[in-house]
Inverse folding.
């Protein structure tokens, strides 16, 4: 009897502006399905499994195996991207097994990915979560010899030195002092100790907001959001390492415009797809675990109810 092989890439669900596939990221990127998107993706935004010392349910590689594994995606990513497209990869910090010492593993993995794909490093960002639980637990909670690790890095790369981007799309509200300055129209101009010369007119143009820094401060503490409620009603375990939706929205705004295509090869609970949906972008998500895919549908439940 001929053995029937199951397809490695399955259509999990489709929305009006995006599609979720069930597959390993490696299998999807090597598939005929991925070939349809070659040269069409404006942004790859993803948070691959971190190189943790302990195995997690969502899957993660360790030590040098992680570096080799991540680098394999470089060529496939480059094939998918438009000439002025971007990649943003979140990388958590890594610690040496059994020691209160940080590891350079995440940095080495990032550098190997960049070199293999011949990507330009456009900018480094930090996502700080003030409500993050203390860790690593052994050195922070138990022995009390380290402080909690409360941020991750996000690395923006591109095949181009001048990828599509505009900070005008991510302006933040002016501070009270800046609003006061604009109202009064008066400023202490002149030379500063740093030898910068500030002109009287430099600060009086209202641009609709301030340019944000590369330090992003977002919490992920809402236990009653739409996604969590959906999972509880259906007795599904929420994804244990969800990214705040505001982080995905920031980069989608910065690096894409309406109608652009956003891709996440490690979609998890599909934070990226939901953020793209909210911003009128098209999206593709890939996730191997059926339970995470089932829960991710909850991110779109409210939109569908109101239609």
């Amino acid at each position: 009897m001929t053995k029937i092989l199951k397809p490695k890439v399955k259509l999990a669900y489709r929305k009006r502006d995006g599609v979720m596939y069930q597959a390993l990221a490696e299998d999807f990127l090597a598939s005929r399905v991925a070939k349809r998107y070659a040269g069409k993706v404006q942004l790859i935004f993803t948070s691959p499994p971190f190189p943790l010392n302990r195995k997690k349910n969502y899957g993660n590689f360790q030590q040098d195996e992680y570096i080799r594994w991540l680098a394999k995606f470089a060529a496939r990513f480059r094939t998918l991207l438009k000439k002025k497209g971007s990649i943003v990869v979140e990388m958590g910090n890594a610690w040496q097994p059994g020691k209160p010492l940080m590891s350079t593993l995440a940095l080495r993995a990032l550098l190997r990915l960049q070199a293999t794909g011949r990507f330009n490093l456009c900018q480094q960002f930090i996502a700080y979560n003030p409500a993050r639980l203390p860790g690593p637990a052994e050195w922070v909670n138990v022995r009390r010899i380290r402080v909690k690790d409360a941020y991750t890095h996000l690395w923006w790369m591109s095949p181009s030195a001048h990828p599509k981007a505009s900070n005008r799309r991510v302006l933040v509200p002016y501070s009270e002092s800046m609003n006061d300055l604009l109202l009064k129209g008066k400023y202490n101009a002149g030379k500063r100790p740093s030898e910068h010369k500030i002109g009287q007119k430099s600060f009086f143009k209202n641009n609709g907001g301030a340019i944000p820094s590369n330090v992003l401060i977002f919490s992920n503490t809402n236990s009653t959001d739409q996604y969590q409620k959906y999972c509880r009603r259906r007795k599904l375990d929420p994804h244990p390492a969800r990214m705040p939706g505001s982080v995905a929205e920031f980069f989608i705004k910065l690096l894409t415009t309406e109608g652009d295509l956003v891709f996440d090869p490690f979609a998890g609970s599909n934070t990226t797809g939901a953020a793209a949906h909210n911003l009128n972008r098209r999206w593709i998500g890939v996730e191997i675990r059926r339970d995470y895919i089932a829960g991710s549908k909850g991110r779109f439940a409210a939109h569908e109810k109101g239609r």
Observations:
- The longest strand covers residues 81-91.
- The mean pLDDT is 87.
